[in-house]
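Our working data are protein records whose layout never changes between entries. An example says more than a description, so a record of this kind follows.
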Amino acid sequence: MKLACKNIGLNLEIKDALLEKMKKHGKEHYPNEYGGLLVGRYSDNFKSVLIEEIVLPKEYKSSRFKFERGAKGLKKVLHNFFGRSPSLSYVGEWHTHPDGIPVPSITDVAALKMIVQHDEVYIENPVLLIISINREAYELGFYVLFRNEICHYEIVSKELVNKIEK
């Protein structure tokens, strides 16, 4: 799936197999929220990001309306991704909103802002994927923190939309 934030000139691409993997994990934890890290790589001009992997946390707190990801073991996992060729790095977060809408909450926005300010994170524009999930379907919401504001990605290539909505 290809998406774009046209007003700020940022693009995003993610494979349908990875979206299916996140959907599966979300359904396994339904009706509680669940999520993890997004790992990928940027284009040379930093205008496009390709999300290639997810990392699931070893520790987390989860309820119907909250997901708190722990950090245990993540530094080592991310270091291994960075050592690959091509090098992959942390690009953002994903989590589910069970029976909700795929729109960032105030808590979600605050968490992204804290990530940008963290000493060990070297990212200015983290991506956020929210998966609204229920027993029958799901809906995706892709966002990016840009200049301290949340911007919504819109689908550019609809080749996978029908498959995702199943």
The mean pLDDT is 90. Residues 2-164 form a domain with the Cytidine Deaminase; domain 2 fold (CATH 3.40.140.10).
